[in-house]
Design goal:
The protein is built from eight helices and eleven strands. By secondary structure, the protein is an alpha/beta fold. A hairpin with a 4-residue loop joins strand 2 (114-119) and strand 3. Helix 1 (22-36) packs antiparallel against helix 2, helix 5 runs parallel beside helix 6 (167-178) and helix 6 (167-178) runs parallel beside helix 7. It is elongated, with a radius of gyration of 21 Å. Residues 99-290 form the Tail specific protease domain.
């Protein structure tokens, strides 16, 4: 989290949303990018590209403008996004507040996005995880799902609808498949610190040894991509499906204006095996398959 002392003073007029124009919004956006992102040519390219494209646009901000800003940013950071809220009244942020705590009732109601655990007639266990809720709440559901895979002939981990979430949950799931001994997955580089992510230590004999295919597609995003990428890089799985969008930054929510909330990159991931990540290129499947035949293709790839 960026603390107040780390920021240059920001002053906002409470009525600025009434007259906010595109160039002002982009100036505010690029100011936050300079404050949040690690200094690098990539950050500089993102700031320069947005500034060049929008510095002379002095029309009032609309939803279409927010989409245009996103599309411009995606050439550098696929994760950057803006939400336009007509009639919004919230004051712009002057500090990075981070993510709100998850609602335990919501997580329980959706079983931590474990949408399917199915044992197929040929002994295949299909596990679908559609998002990555906070591991503190998701662990019982994930452990139950993977425990049901014990004794199966093979495992299909379906991440095609996984839009991302908690990197700690990535590490927890990876631990079920990579072994009982902790394994480093990545290092996340922030402006002022670094954080390593490791799989947890498990009781001997807990982790699963069956062949595993990870199903991916256009709906696999962010930390969903991270899980597939880290497992693929370690040679533990066969990735089957379509190339993913390629969003590898860690992001944080920032209200730029009463009418605009942004999700902005604040860190990037470095896989401990490849030394890089999937930003802009996506997770490339080992076996390409269209969605309508991906399960059959994955089973065949593991036989």
């Amino acid at each position: 989290m960026v603390e107040p002392a780390d920021l240059e003073p920001l002053f906002y007029c409470s009525t600025m949303s009434d007259a906010l124009v595109v160039c002002d919004l982009v100036e505010r956006l690029t100011g936050w990018l300079r404050r949040l992102m690690p200094a690098s040519p990539r950050r500089d390219a993102l700031v320069a590209g947005l500034t060049e494209r929008f510095e002379s646009v002095d029309t009032p901000v609309t939803g279409a403008d927010c989409v245009a800003i996103e599309r411009c940013a995606w050439t550098v950071s696929r994760h950057l996004s803006l939400i336009f809220e007509p009639g919004g009244t919230g004051l712009p942020d002057t500090v990075s507040r981070g993510w709100p705590d998850p609602d335990p009732d919501v997580v329980r109601a959706r079983a931590a996005c474990v949408s399917q655990v199915r044992r197929m007639a040929d002994g295949t266990c299909l596990i679908s995880v559609d998002d990555l809720d906070a591991v503190s709440l998701a662990q019982p559901y994930l452990d139950g799902a993977f425990a049901l895979a014990q004794g199966s002939a093979r495992i299909l981990l379906d991440l095609r609808a996984n839009g991302g979430g908690d990197p700690a949950t990535v590490a927890h799931i990876a631990g079920w498949l990579l072994g009982d001994t902790p394994t480093q997955l990545s290092e996340v580089v922030y402006r002022d610190r670094r954080r390593q992510w490791w799989t947890p230590a498990l009781p001997s004999g807990t982790s699963l040894r069956q062949p595993v295919a990870v199903l991916v597609g256009r709906g696999t995003f962010s930390s969903g991509e991270a899980l597939a990428y880290h497992l693929q890089a370690r040679g533990r799985v066969v990735v089957v499906g379509e190339t993913t969008p390629g969003a590898a930054d860690h992001i944080t929510p920032i209200r730029l204006a009463p009418t605009v909330v942004a999700f902005l990159p604040e860190a990037y991931v470095v896989d401990s095996i490849t030394g890089t990540n999937w930003e802009g290129v996506g997770v490339v499947p080992d076996v390409v398959s269209p969605p309508d035949t991906v399960i059959e293709t994955a089973v065949a790839a593991l036989r």
